[in-house]
Amino acid sequence: MSKIKIKKLILLGTYTVNSIIATAQTIPAKLLTAFEKKDTSLLSDALAPNFSVAGHTGEGADFRLNQIINNYPLKAIHILSKKKTSKGELLQMEITDAKEKTSTSQALVDPQGKLVHFSLFDQLYGMKRKNKSTLRAVIPFENKNGSIYLQVKINGSEKPLRLLFDTGADGMAVSQQLADVIGLKVTRENSASVVGGHAKIQVSDNNTILLDTLKLGGQGIAIFPEMGRDGDGIIGNTLIRQFITHIDYDKNLLSLYDFGDFQYPGKGTPVPIMMPAGVMILPGQLEIVQNKSYPGHFVFDTGASYDLICFRPFVRQNRLLVSGFKPEAQAATVSMGVSSPTFSGKSYQFTIASLPAMKNLPVTLMGGSAANEQWKPGFDGSIGVRLLSRYNMTINLAEGEVYFSPNKLHALPSDFLIKNYQFGWDNTGQLKTLGRVGATETPEGIQSGILIQRIDNYTVDQLTKNPAFIEEIQAKAHANSISITLADNSTISI
Prior knowledge:
This protein is α+β, with helices and mostly antiparallel strands. The chain folds into four domains: 14-127, Nuclear Transport Factor 2, Chain: A, CATH 3.10.450; 136-258, Cathepsin D, subunit A, domain 1 (Beta Barrel), CATH 2.40.70; 269-410, Acid Proteases (Cathepsin D, subunit A, domain 1); 416-493, Pdz3 Domain (Roll), CATH 2.30.42. The strands form seven sheets. Strands 22-23-26-21-27-20-19-24-25 form a nine-stranded mixed beta sheet. The protein has a six-stranded antiparallel beta sheet with strand order 6-16-15-28-29-18, with no helix packed on it. Strands 8-9-14-10-13-12 form a six-stranded mixed barrel.
């Protein structure tokens, strides 16, 4: 290469670096102008694609930014110092409000010089970032086939409640009957998605909850006429909005840390998340049959007891029901207030972002109905705990990511269907029934949660080591009855 070309490349590289620095340095001025003119559009070229406010991205971040720009009395802002990090440049900023009160905030600027997050904005919506992350609580949980149940006490009541940790829900909720028992005071009404559409629900504000040794005040609790689920209610994204939340399925422990500099435990992979409307969204790739890949965005839903469901708009757009998919069971489901027929079967594989693909993953596809043809959920499906529980996970909303580490369940075969019965392994390596798809349980059938010793001619150990035996049994089941040996040595034919 000639000296002229080398010099040209050096100059080009210098220009690129200087332009990024210049862009970062202009952020305080752009912020101040936007506050003075109360116009968020003046920041459009200064915000990163993953810009967030208290973990909310997209429309959720836009709404909160607009509220802040129009209401916060910012008078002056300037950079105190800069520090390079693996994710960009961290700016230490001094903020002066209309009352001449000064404070410091941190802003993360990506390598392109765009604003990723600003701790002032986060703090105004309840997310506090500290320099050092500290452990706040270690809470044991009940693991029911991957579903996480936490013991919670509300407002000093001695009655322990069993609440489902449900990241597919925005906050806490209990039934009207339970609210009456523990004496929740209704402070307002709100609109919520329920079966059949929307309805007015009651809300109780400023409650105190106790999780093991951790006490949290100022909590809002929605009150539904009926909850229609196992347990006493749900605890949604209340925790992940306040803490780095580590889920250890190997030990059945939930650990909560302050937001701040944090070292993820174990070997794993960070996956970016979006949160445009109160729930976390992960990028995924579905292959119904090999070499036919369909990208989508899926809800991170620890409140759902399945592996994966694809919503009707995504199924219709990609013609998934006629893509080579072979349904093994048919049922119906209600999601976001919309009732739909569903078809359950097996996919070739499913991949969450850059994680290794999950082979032979069960998938449920929503069929069409009069109720769902105009449905626009805003995402393509939902990832449930039967898949998620194969990882120990750290949810870090402040950094917009979930850190996935394979756990003991990860190496075991995927869940599978035989004549409408769903089977799967738990985190101790035991095979059990998970329920029936499209059919109610009967006394003469196999009840949910029953441990299995043998299916047809194969022991659980043989099925674990050679999943091809599972496919052999499934093929046989199309025309023949299958013998199931339970833990007590009794046998049932299905």
